[in-house]
Amino acid sequence: MNFALIGNPNCGKTTLFNQLTGSKQHVGNFPGVTVDKKEGKIRRQEDVTVVDLPGIYSLSPYTAEEIVTRDYLIKSHPDGIINIVDASNIERNLYLTLQLLDLEMPMIVALNMMDVVTANGGKIDIKGLEKKLGIPIIPISASRNQGVDDLIRRAVRMVRERQLPERRDFCSGDVHRAIHSTAHLIEEEARTHGVALKFASTKLVEGDEKMMNELEIQEAERDIIRHIVDDMEFHCGMDREAALADARYQYIEDLCSELVVKPHETRGQKRSVKIDRVLTHRIFAIPIFIGIMAFIFWITFGTVGATLSDWFSAGIDYLIGLADTGLQALQVNDALRSLLIDGVCSGVGSVLSFLPTIVLLFFLLSILEDSGYMARVAFVMDKLLRKIGLSGRSFVPMLIGFGCSVPAIMATRTLSSERDRRLTVLLVPFMSCSAKLPIYAMFTAAFFTEYRALVMISLYVFGILIGILCGFLMKKLMFAGEPVPFVMELPEYRMPAPQSVLLHMWEKAKAFMKKAFTVIFIATIVIWFLQSFDIRFNMVSDSRESMLADLGHLISPLLVPLGFGDWRAATALLTGFSAKEAVVSTFAVLLGAGNSSDLTVMLGDIFTPLTAYVFLVFCLLYTPCVAAIAAVKKELGGLRQAGGVVLFQTAVAWIAAFAVYRIGLLIL
Ligand code: GDP
Ligand code: MG
Predict the structure, then answer these.
(1) CA torsion angle 593 598 603 606 (round to 10)
(2) How many domains does the chain have?
């Protein structure tokens, strides 16, 4: 038995999904978080599965979310629909419910957020609503796990007994007539294509081209439908979409005036309005955002983060020291000991030592997200992004890009226009992802101890500026046209939920550790081998004679104009393709440093503070890791495009680094 969870954005679908299945999907106080569908088994009911679908306002085929949800409903034929309705916003939510009813599938409404309604003096006549809509309605509170068991029981019974919605018409007059006439006309096509007749005819009257083509309606019939619709538009004095929307809202309004006592404005809403007066202020909004981000970076990279990191790396150094003595005591073969200690331990260790910084950064960012602030930022950024030809919706992927480019590139799927999507995919990698953080941290610790936070912030800002510049140029050169308008509902401000924030942090830490022990682990072994042997596989005593050095020497001439033509820097950048953290582990292996403070000294042989900064700029901008390239390939549809992106980004990185180096030389 299979249920589809469907509802508006932010109505609590994922919360309910997690309650039902016991899984821990990301719940965001933020529309556009669930992009793809997720499937899970209901607890204690192993034969029942539910699918969490992206939030939608309507079943029209305009946005990626709508298409995913609609295709799932029409093509996968779930046994039943669980429609989640935000009871505190019931009028808007029922708009989708009415459309779902047209599908003529077993359907149950989970009336969520009942806690909010009752706490604020609202009342809903559940029995009356059931009678009017002809489907079971269960009041629940997903976040408090109230009514959820009842919901499952009723839903399962509904499917077992194949209870269909008791058919009712929600439109009357001209709209009703148009839908009926169309239904007569396309009965045959709807049956052969297995689409509910009522749904199909309503969509055709609404002017849904996708449905028209899916049903393979003949030209003659299209003509008749056109006439029917013209007639309806003439009589209603509205265009087709407006006429249908009006009919649905009319019905909902009548229904609610009879059965619903609306809750008064909650304290939370009042508070939100007040806070928004400041945080989304016409002039102050952006300075406030910059201030908040600067504060977060200052905490993460300044004293607090640095101290945590230092403690953590001291711990790691101590453990590596212990392992080394242990291996020596056991008289393990020198080459093997070198592989384990100088290769694996110092490589993986050098990356792992940045775990606290990353966890701290994501702790703070998820507080911002969960409180509802980030949704405001997307809204405020819309105006700025529009200048570079993007809509505020692109802000969500870009924001995710500060964590990792891979999910960010995948999140561009929520953008409804292909143009916005491609442009966003190109710009996301300029956002400084968390894998680059260890590189910054290593270099700032070595060269800019006093201005650590400042240097870090400058890199983040630099990435954004280059992104803006590229966006602007590309808009002029390649992506003519306007971004689609940005509509988003702003969620209420609230205290961040500890479990949500902790979950977010834990996921980040888990992903980071997984990478350290897989990709970085392998990369360090490969690097250790390449630097320990020459081309004829003789073990070398000086890595300058190794095959890695030969390889590095091939590339380093390209880097000479940037001021760091050292072969070790070249190989570090090369391994950075596997994962950006590998730049750090490669230096750790190549410089053969026993602990982090040695490493600092040794980096001084390769870089001056200026070239160190230039190197960081290059790392910031040059092409993201293999995983990100694969994601680009998947989203843009081809190897050629992905190759183009790699070349483009490396070129941008080189040019920017060169410019920074030259300007730096002039100033210093
Ligand atoms: P989705 O976008 O539909 O998947 O919604 P989410 O599951 O991400 O939830 C949106 C927000 O509503 C989150 O902040 C939840 O904590 C909150 N929420 C969900 N269910 C309830 C509920 O029953 N009562 C209250 N007060 N809040 C809820
Ligand atoms: Mg969700």
Answers:
(1) -70
(2) 3
Distance CA 301, CA 636 (A): 35
402 shares its domain with 458: yes
Q: 160, 192, 219: which is the final residue of a domain?
A: 160
- Phi first, then psi, for residue 253 (nearest 5°) are -60, -45
Q: What is the pLDDT of residues 513-548, one digit of tens each?
A: 888 888 889 988 988 888 888 888 888 877 788 888
| Residues 224 and 292 grouped into a single domain | no
Residue 183 and residue 50 share a domain:
no
Q: Is the CB of 9 within 6 Å of ligand 1?
A: yes
Burial of 228 (0-12, 13-18, 19+ CB in 10 A): buried
Burial group, residue 550, by CB count within 10 angstroms (0-12, 13-18, 19+): middle
- Tell me if 28 CB under 6 Å of ligand 1: yes
* Domain enclosing residue 12, as ranges: 2-160
pTM of the predicted model over 0.70: yes
Position in ligand 1 atom list of the atom nearest CA 146: 23
Per residue in 446-486, pLDDT (tens digit) is 899 888 888 988 998 899 899 989 988 888 887 777 777 77
Q: Is 295 part of any domain?
A: yes
Indicate the SS3 state at residue 637: coil
One domain for residues 625 and 477:
yes
Q: Which of 160, 181, 203 is the last residue of a domain?
A: 160
- In a shared domain, residues 647 and 555: yes
Cα–Cα separations (whole angstroms), residue 280 to 101, 287, 375, 376: 38, 10, 11, 7
In this structure, what token pair is assigned to residue 642? 């992905």
* Whether the CB of 112 sits within 6 Å of ligand 1: yes
Nearest CA to ligand 1 atom 24: 113
Q: Give the distance (Å) from ligand 1 centre to CA of residue 108.
A: 19
Within 8 A by CB and 6+ apart from 662, the residues are none
Would the CB of 32 count as within 6 Å of ligand 1?
no
Could you identify the atom of ligand 1 that is nearest to the CA of residue 494? 14
